[in-house]
Automatic annotation (TrEMBL):
The active site is at 153 (charge relay system), 226 (charge relay system), 559 (charge relay system). This is Subtilisin-like protease. Residues 674-770 form the Subtilisin-like protease fibronectin type-III domain. Keywords: Glycoprotein, Hydrolase, Protease, Secreted, Serine protease, Signal. Gene3D superfamilies: 2.60.40.2310, 3.50.30.30, Peptidase S8 propeptide/proteinase inhibitor I9, Peptidase S8/S53 domain. It comes from Leersia perrieri. Residues 211-233 are annotated as: Disordered. Its main location: secreted. Residues 145-603 form the Peptidase S8/S53 domain. Residues 215-227 have a biased composition (Basic and acidic residues). SUPFAM superfamilies: PA domain, Subtilisin-like. It holds the Pfam family fn3_6. It comes from the Eukaryota. PANTHER family: PROPROTEIN CONVERTASE SUBTILISIN/KEXIN.
């Protein structure tokens, strides 16, 4: 008898029934959450509502154990219904049911649940958008152009002064969102600044079980800090005398301080689940957000299998600009996430501010690093203290050299400064391990994976982070000296750092593994040592043992760079309310710069050499120029669909974006390079000597009568001809097209990088150009 399929009906002893129930439970197929996209137009006329159709579809694929379930029981397996940016539902299904669901009528795609991770003051001034600029943009004449920035993250800490609504007018009449209440969060926590707050956890609970409400608040309140930090970076109100332990003191304000904030809490202790993220995007678009900031990401999936890609496509269709973080998997190549062309993918760079600290070795050598340490356990700069490094000479990492939990013994480190290699465990946690073992200080040494990039942390004991070469010098000294000693000193905040900006080593890099013809990341923005508001429930180090509480914290990651771009997009939207998401993105990309404050090419922290478009995209954002870009490259929904037609999708896969079954490919693009993207990336394959032509159309958003001339880089591997080479505009919003013909001269082993720029003497509209030669098959 197959207990996994049998239904026990005969009366029996209670013990036998209990055992059989246990057997049935053990044999039952494992269910997982799947996101099911439906063709909205194909709902049978027998249903009045979409949720009825969805429940019936779930029932139709239910396994034999569930064949008797009623419609209401089938609907309980549905986790979410989606209806705005995405049409369909999320449901608990076993593998067999998921396979049958993919073949069911009206089903476009069945996507497994995935878990995404968070990509975790001075920046407005560094970007040139001080109070005078932002006040000019948010003038009274633009009062009816209220912009709402939706932030998908860990929630929000409403008591932060960064979310004061002082000076703001009424909540925009167009706004349809609400303030969802829960433990620790009431309707009074929303105001004219925080106009909406919602939570999404059904997908999380369906996969991981109920949230532990004794330790986690099932409300929009942020217990982590990440969401508060990103929301304040995008649109925080000005706060005087903001600082972290005296570091980075000044006025903290977001990129768009007059914009409204809507917080969508999608991340919990166990991660951020794709069905919850999709539900949040769907709801945010319905609520009426203008901009979405999503500092989350997972691996790179095909466009039609990426729920965030599909949802952001729906958001784009509704006129919503979507900014996403590029990821923190650098400096490895091909490490990007959020690759869709309708998403603005943001990498991270440094600012001209630093927090210097010094290691003085017993031999008199001074090693420069960074730190945010501020505590009572200071070391005297006039004294020397024993220093130790427990790593060996082997190429294999030693757990003791990494200062992992449980690896340090008091007899080795008590009373000493310990050199710890960066990696495996969080940076601040290494200092906690040293402190618990009796160490009095830490030198945190970068390895080859991090190079010379320095990231400051609010350590729990005196600690200085140093680059790879300086770390090697400190370790060599500690091993060679008879009685090695050192001391640590801290220099506070320093401005005017040169060179800056520099692309962060951790920032994920291209090329775009899905489509080489679409350059990613799109831009870089400040993402290293960013000061912004923080949760009152979280310590600055995020370690449970850290009892410190702060109003502002300093973090690094593409999670920090993403809301910079989202906030600047809000500024542009306020100034140009009729611009499409593609036009806003174009303005950001074509006005970006690629030189640092020493007037040399922007560097890559991972190598110390000039960065390339695979690291910085179009370059570093320049918000003031982006407000008046001169020309923009617009992309319509139909253009994006033609792009997707070049991606070798089946008709069913294409329907995940077309949704309407009667939309078909017109094949107007010869390749993905023909998408009217603000960057040009051409791939030479098969016949490398064959000439290739790409076409672009620009829209005049500057003076009505203007003339632009083109300038293009000379390449080693190809001749480039632009026709016409002069564009004459007579009216605003006039569109003119040009074509770029590329003919290979000598195939190159590595990609070549350059630029194509149009200038009228005032505006420079610059597009990066990437030429890639694929080896013969």
């Amino acid at each position: 008898m197959d207990f996994c399929k049998a239904r026990w009906r005969a009366p029996s002893l209670c013990l036998v029934i209990v055992l059989l129930q246990a057997s049935l439970s053990a044999c039952a197929p494992t269910t997982n959450t799947y996101i099911v996209q439906m063709a909205k137009s194909e709902m049978p006329s027998s249903f009045d509502f979409y949720h009825e159709w969805y429940a019936s579809t779930v029932k139709s694929v239910s396994s034999s154990q569930l064949e008797d379930e009623e419609e209401d029981d089938a609907s309980t397996r549905i986790v979410y219904n989606y209806e705005t940016a995405f049409h369909g539902f999320a449901a608990r299904l076993d593998d067999d049911e998921a396979d049958m669901m993919a073949e069911a009528d009206g089903v476009l795609a069945v996507i497994p649940e995935t878990v995404l991770q968070l990509h975790t003051t001075r920046s407005p001034d560094f970007l040139g958008i001080g109070p005078e600029v932002s006040n000019r943009i948010w003038s009274d004449s633009l009062a009816d152009h209220d912009v709402v920035v939706g932030v998908l993250d860990t929630g929000i800490w409403p008591e932060s002064p960064s979310f004061s609504d002082k000076g703001l007018g009424p909540v925009p009449a167009k706004w349809k969102g609400l303030c969802q209440t829960g433990r620790g969060f009431t309707s009074a926590n929303c105001n004219r600044k925080i106009v909406g707050a919602r939570i999404f956890y059904s997908g999380y609970e369906a996969s991981s079980g109920p949230i532990n409400e004794t330790t986690e608040l099932k409300s929009p309140r942020d217990q982590d800090g990440h969401g508060t930090h990103t929301a304040a970076t995008a649109a925080g109100s000005p706060v005087q005398d903001a600082n972290l332990f005296g570091y980075a003191g000044g006025v903290a304000r977001g990129m768009a301080p007059r914009a409204r904030v809507a917080a969508y809490k999608v991340c919990w202790a166990g991660g951020c689940f794709s069905s919850d993220i999709l539900a949040a995007v769907d709801r945010a678009v319905s609520d009426g957000v203008d901009v979405l900031s999503i500092s989350l990401g997972g691996g790179a999936s095909r466009y039609y299998l990426d729920s965030l890609s599909i949802a952001s496509f729906g958001a784009m269709q509704m006129g919503v600009f979507v900014a996403c973080s590029a990821g923190n998997a650098g400096p490895d190549p091909i490490s990007l996430t959020n690759l869709s062309p309708w998403i603005t993918t943001v990498g991270a760079s440094t600012m001209d501010r630093d927090f210097p600290a010094t290691v003085t070795l017993g031999n008199g050598a001074n090693i420069t690093g960074v730190s945010l340490y501020k505590g009572l356990r200071n070391l005297s700069p006039q004294e020397q203290y024993p220093v130790v490094y427990l790593g060996g000479n082997s190429s294999m990492p030693d757990p003791r050299s990494l200062c992992l939990e449980g690896t340090l013994q008091p007899h080795d480190v008590s009373g000493k400064i310990v050199i710890c290699d960066r990696g495996i465990s969080p940076r601040v946690q290494k200092g906690q391990v040293v402190k618990e073992a009796g160490g009095i200080g830490m030198i945190l040494a970068n390895t080859a994976a991090n190079g010379e990039e320095l990231v400051a942390d609010s350590h729990l004991l005196p600690a200085v982070a140093v680059g790879e070469s300086e770390g090697i010098a400190a370790k060599s000294y500690s091993k060679s000296a008879a009685k090695p000693t050192a001391t640590l000193s801290f220099g506070g905040t320093k401005l005017g750092i040169r060179p800056s900006p520099v692309v962060a080593a951790f920032s994920s890099r291209g090329p775009n593994i899905l489509t080489l013809e679409i350059l990613k990341p799109d831009v870089v923005a400040p993402g290293v040592n960013i000061l912004a508001a923080w949760s009152g429930d979280a310590s600055p180090s995020s370690l449970p043992s850290d009892s410190r509480r702060v109003g502002f914290n300093i973090l690094s990651g593409t999670s920090m760079s993403c809301p910079h771009v989202a906030g600047v997009a809000a500024l542009i939207k306020a100034s140009h309310p009729d611009w499409s998401p593609a036009q806003i993105k174009s303005a950001l990309m074509t006005t970006a710069y690629v030189h640092d404050n020493t007037y040399r090419p922007m560097k890559d922290a991972a190598t110390g050499k000039a960065s390339k478009p695979f690291e910085h995209g179009a370059g570093h954002i320049h918000p003031v120029r982006a407000l008046t870009p001169g020309l923009v490259y617009d992309i319509s929904q139909a253009d994006y669909l033609e792009f997707l037609c070049t991606q070798r999708m089946t008709p069913m896969q294409l329907k995940t974006f077309t949704k309407n079954s009667n939309m078909t490919c017109r094949h107007t693009f010869s390749s993905a390079s023909d998408l009217n993207y603000p960057a040009i990336s051409v791939v030479f394959a098969d016949q490398p000597s064959k000439a290739m032509t790409v076409r672009r159309t620009v829209t005049n958003v500057g003076p009505p009568s203007s003339t632009y001339q083109v300038k293009v880089t000379k390449f080693k591997g190809a001749d480039v001809v632009v026709e016409p080479n002069i564009l004459h505009f007579a009216t605003t919003n006039q569109k003119l097209s040009y074509k770029v013909t590329l003919t290979t001269k000598a195939a190159q082993k590595a990609p070549e990088f350059g630029a194509l720029s149009w200038s009228d003497g005032v505006h420079v509209v610059r597009s990066p150009v990437v030429l890639t030669w694929l080896p013969p098959q």
